[in-house]
Design goal:
The chain has 275 residues and is an alpha/beta fold. The protein folds into two domains: 8-169, NAD(P)-binding Rossmann-like Domain (Rossmann fold, 3-Layer(aba) Sandwich); 177-271, ProC C-terminal domain-like (ProC C-terminal domain-like fold, Orthogonal Bundle). Helices cover 52% and strands 13% of the residues. Strand 2, helix 2 (42-51) and strand 3 form a beta-alpha-beta unit. The model has no long low-confidence stretch (mean pLDDT 95). It binds NADP nicotinamide-adenine-dinucleotide phosphate. NADP nicotinamide-adenine-dinucleotide phosphate is lined by residues 11-17, 38-41, 44, 61, 74-77, 79, 83, 100-102, 123-126, 177.
Length: 275
């Protein structure tokens, strides 16, 4: 396993940071004493200590990075410049930086550190909190295959990982980074649709949720193209074709293509606010 020999500093143990710690500890991939997690508010550090007994938890970023071989930057993007300024003099040469900071390129992170460090940029999504994340990683300058392997192992502990070229990161943000929001909306709408047909809301919600989960799992587990699976449940003159032709007439595909394009464009704008 690529992780167990490393010492990790998780700078910003919020939602994503904690999901990654949980992933590392779950498979006993990393001994607890090799993880140091930080957050800003002293009173919230206790939450992290309680959740992960045995790891080091503090508000001391400098100390956390001093003996780390892997630093995970998981603060909010607007907090990044200050945090990097605080730690940059204390980072050992050769330390791998893994950033989940949305919108910050490996180039801009390298400029903030002002030294030749391997930097991996990652875009996870919130299902990482339940080990069902979809993460894309891009290797920046000075990265070797071993750095990619460490980042892959880290995010595989909380879901699936795709390696991409960095220029595609905005597209990933538009698809899987923001995607859970689209699916939540779909589940909510499907629930309302059931309620409209007379189903009690709680039952409609459970049916809608399980249907989305089951359909996703069927696509993933069988490896079949979704169109084939759709054909398999579409009887001539039946209910599924009646409904799917309605969805086609309202442009479901075009709507999603445009939504992802808009999110991708927005991600580009946020990555280069000075333009
Ligand atoms: N959530 C997502 O779906 C998602 C997806 C992809 C990428 N990301 C990226 O992941 C990063 C984290 O997002 P999140 O949702 O996990 O945010 P979050 O829950 O707000 O976590 C951010 C953490 O950073 C800590 N922090 C703030 N300033 C700090 C400092 N100076 N030193 C140490 N820790 C500090 C905060 O601590 P306190 O709580 O004590 O203030 C908080 O625990 C963001 O850059 C975001 O762009 C998130």
């Amino acid at each position: 396993m690529a992780l167990h020999t490393h010492r990790f500093a998780i700078i910003g143990a919020g939602s994503i940071g904690r999901a990654l710690i949980a992933g590392m500890l779950k498979g006993e991939d990393v001994p607890r004493e090799q993880i140091h997690a930080t957050r800003k508010s002293e009173n919230r550090l206790e939450e992290v200590r309680e959740a992960f007994p045995g790891i080091e938890v503090s508000a001391d970023n400098e100390r956390a990075v001093q003996d780390a071989s892997v630093i995970v930057l998981s603060v909010k993007p607007q907090q990044a410049a200050r945090v990097i300024e605080e730690i940059r003099q204390h980072v050992q040469s050769g330390t791998l930086i893994i950033s989940v900071l949305a919108g910050l390129t490996t180039h801009s992170i390298a400029q903030l550190f002002d030294q030749r460090l391997p930097i991996v940029r990652a875009m996870p999504n919130t299902p990482a909190m339940i080990d069902a994340g979809a993460t894309a990683i891009a290797l920046g300058p000075h990265c070797k295959a071993e750095h990619g392997a460490i980042a892959t192992a880290l995010f595989e502990a909380v879901g699936s990982v795709e390696e991409i070229e960095e220029y595609l990161m905005d597209a990933v943000t538009g698809l899987s980074g923001s995607g859970p929001a689209y699916v939540f909306m779909f589940i909510e709408a499907l629930t309302d649709a059931g309620v409209k047909q007379g189903l009690p809301r709680s039952i409609a919600a459970r049916l809608a949720t399980q249907t989305v989960y089951g359909a996703s799992k069927l696509v993933r587990d069988t490896g079949k193209h979704p169109a084939i699976l759709r054909d398999e449940v579409t009887t001539p003159g039946g209910t599924a074709i009646a409904a799917t032709s309605e969805l086609e007439s309202h442009g479901l595909r075009t709507m999603l293509i445009k939504a992802v394009a808009t999110a991708t464009e927005r991600s580009k704008q946020l990555s280069s606010p000075e333009e």
